[in-house]
User: Which sequence fits this backbone?
């Protein structure tokens, strides 16, 4: 573990510097690219803060859906590939409602990182 500031805090500091000090002083193309950079830094910050929890929860849901051993060390990528294959070939035993709940939760977590504004009701 690194001492403070954390990676997320460093990213936030750079994003805030761009937003408060650099962005207002620019115009046109440079301002547009600075806005893009600020958005990228916001995504990176959210990923640093949220992805470990989101990945662990998705992994746990997939282990349940696929009736795997709770201590499964299969990667998230492998579990998702297996889920897709079982959906395609019709061999998934999990109830449809459980599958839909998993997909909704996974999508919510991904949108919360990519752009939380997409989640507004």
Assistant:
């Amino acid at each position: 573990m690194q001492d403070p500031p954390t990676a997320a805090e460093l990213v936030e500091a750079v994003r805030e510097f761009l937003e408060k000090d650099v962005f207002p002083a620019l115009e046109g193309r440079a301002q547009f690219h600075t806005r893009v950079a600020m958005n990228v830094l916001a995504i990176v910050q959210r990923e640093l803060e949220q992805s470990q929890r989101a990945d662990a929860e998705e992994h746990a849901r997939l282990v349940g859906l696929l009736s795997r051993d709770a201590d499964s060390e299969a990667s998230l990528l492998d579990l998702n590939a297996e889920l897709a294959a079982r959906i395609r070939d019709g061999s998934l035993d999990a109830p449809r409602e459980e599958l839909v709940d998993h997909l909704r939760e996974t999508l919510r977590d991904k949108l919360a990182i990519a752009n939380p504004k997409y989640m507004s009701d």
Summary: The CA atoms of residues 39 and 65 lie 34 Å apart. Residues 7-119 form one domain. The chain has four helices and no strands.
